[in-house]
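User: Sequence in, structure out. Go.
Assistant: Echoing your sequence, followed by the structure tokens.
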Amino acid sequence: MYGWFDYRNSRNRFWPTPPQTKPRRTNMVGNIREILEVLGFTDITEGPKEFRATPIYRESKNKTSLSVRKDSGRWIDYSMGVTGDLTDLVKISLKLQNIEDATAWLQSKDIHVSAYDSQPRQRISTPEIFDESILLRLGDDTSYWEGRGVSLPTLKHFRGGVAYKGRMAGRYIFPIYNSNKKVVGFAGRDLFDNPQRAKWKLIGSKEKWVYPAFLNYEILQASKHVILVESIGDCLAMFDAGVENVLVTFGVKLCAGTLNFLIKTDFQYITIALNNDMVAGDTCGNEAALKMRSKLLHYFDAYQIEISLPTKKDFGDMSKEEIQTWKQPKLCRPAV
């Protein structure tokens, strides 16, 4: 039996062989870590393609929130949902007034970011559909989620399991289904809460995901009220508390697939319920909720959208009774 996604040794490859392309010209390879250290980043960890670190330009205790590419210096702050090139990172980290000052600072370190260098690498698209037999390789150990208060019947609905080998090893894997009940991706939760690893690892194009509509499509259609939560962990807690009119955003940004679904369904009410990071002394989830509301205002009236964050950091930290109390209507809408 092949390991999880060990496609190099598998007859049925999940990804095509990357095309031979001209190497990207960059003079920053080997210098990125040094630049990060000079900027003041600490607790830097190294992955195959990127460095991870705690953002120093805002309050945060997350040691993997910031990801910086080794080959180009392009970065993304997963908690804030913002990205940019190395010059942008220098500007916000040193609190400089303009991008020219950041460019000058980099040039003083003999780093020159050209338009060519700063272009994001072309991504190799993964197949639209994955073989569902992959799920047969997953273990049925549910102790992690049961330890967090999620019931076994709820977990079975989501059809997940533990990966013991390969790139998703040590994670509980949830398959992502499309409207035709085909597997179009996977979301894996780290089971050991290792601060050096991202809590969630995604495979597939999340821009097209509408999750978990394969379970609650009819409920959402009948309710006409949807609650947007940040992770599958939140979704599990909500389902376990009997609140099933939920969609997962997989982060703090609203992806195109979910947005299109909201518009097509023409929901009467939308509740934005991202993580309440203020509980942990951060503001990312709170600020992201405001940005999400601003985006939705292009398509819905103000009275249709509410921000109602969990009373604790996330719904996984709340009891069923606390979730039931939280869900009491705040807008002028019928109870669900």
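User: And one key feature?
Assistant: The chain has three domains: 32-108, 132-208, 213-326.
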